[in-house]
Design goal:
Elements: H1 3-6, H2 10-27, E1 41-46, H3 65-72, E2 75-81, H4 87-96, H5 100-103, H6 120-126, E3 130-134, E4 152-154, H7 159-164, H8 174-187, E5 192-198, H9 211-214, H10 219-240, E6 248-252, H11 273-276, E7 277-283, E8 293-300, H12 304-312, E9 338-342, H13 344-349, E10 354-358, E11 362-366, E12 371-374, H14 390-406, H15 413-416, H16 422-430, H17 442-446, H18 456-470, H19 474-487, H20 493-504, H21 508-521, H22 526-538, H23 542-555, H24 560-572, H25 576-589, H26 594-606, H27 610-622, H28 628-640, H29 644-657, H30 662-674, H31 678-691
Parallel strand pairs: 1-5, 1-6, 2-8, 3-4, 3-5
Antiparallel strand pairs: 2-7, 6-7, 9-10, 10-11, 11-12
Length: about 700
Amino acid sequence: MDQASSALPLTVMARRIAILLSALLLSAPVAAQARRGAPSIVLITIDTLRADRIGCYGYQQVKTPAMDALCRDSIVFDRGIAQVPLTWPSHAAILTGTYPFWNGVQDFTGQPLRPGVDTLAEAMKRHGYATGAVVSSFVLDRSFGMARGFDSYYDAFKASTFLEKDIGLVDRPAGESVDEALKWLKRARRPFFFWLHLYDPHSPYNPPEPFRTEYRGRPYDGEIAYADSQLARLFAWLKRAGLYDSTLIVLTSDHGESLGEHGEREHGFFIYNSTVHVPLVLKPPASSRLKPRREAAAVETIAIPATILGLLGIRDAIEKQFQAPSMLPAGGEEAAPAYSQTMYPFSSFGWSPLHSLENSQYHYIEAPEAELYDLHSDPGEQHNLAAEQPAVAAVLKQRLEERLQQFAPPQRAQDSGASLSPDTAAKLRALGYLAYHAPVSAAMLNSKLADPKAKLAEFNAILQATDSIQLRDFARARALLEKVREQDPQMYLIPFLLAEGAMLRGDAAAAAAEFKKTLELNPEFDQAMTGLARALHALGMDDEARQWLDKALQFNPRNYRAWYQIAWIEMKQRREEAAVGALEKVLSIQPNFGLAHRDLGMLRISQQDYPAAVQHLARAAQLGVEEAPLYNFLGIAYSRTNRLPKAVESYRKALAGNPKLAEARLNLAYAYQQLGRSSEARVEYQTACRLEANFCKYVPGSQR
C-alpha cells in the first residue's frame, strides 16, 4: 500500500476499493462483446421531477403510464439522490460522473465545464457509438461545455424567445423536443448513445391542453403528465423499430421541486429530499439478463456513467475520473451514503453553503445549525434530531468531510485568483467552493456566514421581486429589493436585479449605475459586465461598453452573447468586417443562434455576397426569426442568385407577416415580371405605389 493510501481514513479507502472492484467485476463478463452487437443507450433526464410525483413511485394523482410501463421493465432505485438541485450543475455531474465541487460547475453564476473534464458522450464516441442529444432549455446551451463528445447537440430555440423571455427561461416544450429526438434516432447509425432532456415540469408551470384542464389547480402535475405523454411517443417508436428490448434506457431527473415544503417554492436553496430525491430507473438491455426489481439503497445520480459502462463491458480512461461506483455493485456490498450540496445560498447571496450525506436511514445536512433527520419515521424531514442524536450526526459529519477530502480537486492557477489572499482562498476551499473569484468579501468570509434557514424571508422577497420584474411591476420590485439591501448591503445580487429591472423599463442610466455597484461588490461577475455593456451601448458609450465585453470574455471566451454585443457595436460604428468577424465567432460557438444568422445575412447582402446571404437568412428563418424584413431580404438574395421561385416564396412570407411592407410588394412585382406573370406583377406594382408614393417611379410604364 502506498503512503497516500495509508494516510486515508478507512471509510475513504473502502469507497475507493469499491469503485475499482465494481469496475473490474462488471466489465469482465462482456469485455469481448463486439461493438457491432453492442446495445444502444437512451438517457432521459426530466427536469425538476420529484420522485414522489410518478405512479411507479406511489403517486396516484397524476397519470404517468409511459414511465410506469418503463418501471415495470426496469430496475427501479427507490432513492435516487441528485448531487445538486440546479439544472446545469446537476447535468454536468450526471454526464461526467463527478461531484460538483470537483468538476467546478456548482451553480449558474460560475464558469463553463472546465477543460480536462471528460464526458460520457466522449467515452461512448471513443468506442464507436453515434452520439446525439436534444436539450430543452437554454441553461444547457453548448457554450457551457456539455456538448463535448456529441456528434449532434440540438440546442436550437426560436429566436423570438430570446427577446420575449428572460434568457434563463428560454425553453422548448416536450412535444417539439421529442420530434427532434425522433428525427435524429431515425437516421442514426447503431449503436447510439442518445440523451433527451425535457424541461416541462420546471417553473413556470403551464401545461398545454388537455392537461391544463385535467390538472386545473395542479399545474406542476399537469406538466409531468404532458412530459409522460411525449415519452410514450419515444418508447412507441423504439418498439416499432425493434430497438426497445435491446436498448439500455436510463430515466432520471436533475432535481426535484419543493412546492412550498420548508418554505421553499422551487429548488436550489435547500437540499431536503423534496429537491434532491429524484426518480432513477434503469431498463437493462435484454442481453444483460438482468430482471426487473426495486432497490432500496440511496444511490447517487453521478453513478449513472459507471453503471452504463459496466453493463456494456466497456473499459475507458474516463473510469479514472468517476467518483461513484456502479449502481449495480458485484457481491452485494453496502452502498456508500449519497452526497448532495448547494452553493446557491453562498455564491448568489453570501450565506452559508449546504452539504449533506444520507444513508439507508438518516439524512445529515451540514449547516451553521446542523440538521439530522430519520427518514424512516420522518420522511418529510420536519423534526431535526441533531441535538438528540449527536453521535449519529458526528459520524455522518465525519464521513461528509472524508468525502470532500477524498475528491478535492487539484488546485489550479486560476482557482486562487489574483484578488484572493491565501487565507481567503483556504476559506473558500473549506466551504467546498473552488471558483475563479470570491462571491463575497474577505471580511464576510472571516465572519460566520448566515444559515440559509435564517434567511428564508429575504430569499423569498428576492424571488417575489424577480417575479415582479417579469410582470413589469418595477415599483414593487424596487421596494422589495431595497428592503433586502438594508439588511444585507454587501449582497451583489440586489443591485444586479435592480439594474436588470431598469433596463427593462428603458432607464439605461439607472441600469449602468446599478451594474457598476454590482461590480464594486463582486468585481469578477461576468453577467454584470455584459449587462453594463448593454446599458452603456444604449447610452451611446460604445468604447466603454467594448472594454467591459472584452473583460467578460477573459472569464469565458465562449460567451457568445458577449460576442454578439460586440458585433452590434461594430455594426453601429459601420465597421462591417469587424462585425462579420464577431458574428462568425458567435456562430462558431453556437451555430443555432438565429439572430446572429439574421445579422450576418444582412451584412452579406450589403457586401453583395448573395450566396452567403441566402445561407444565413434561410437558417435564421429555420431557427424561428419570423420577421417580414428578413424574408424580404432573403427574397432579394434568392433573386440575385437566379432562384426566382424561391424569391417569390420569400416575398410572400414577408407580406404574410406585414401586408403593408411596400419594399416586399415592389420586389415581388419585379420577380413576377421576370417570370412572365404580368397580371400578378401589375397588382403588386400598384399596391407598392399606393403604399409608398416614392416607389411609383420604379413602376415600368407597361405596368401602370
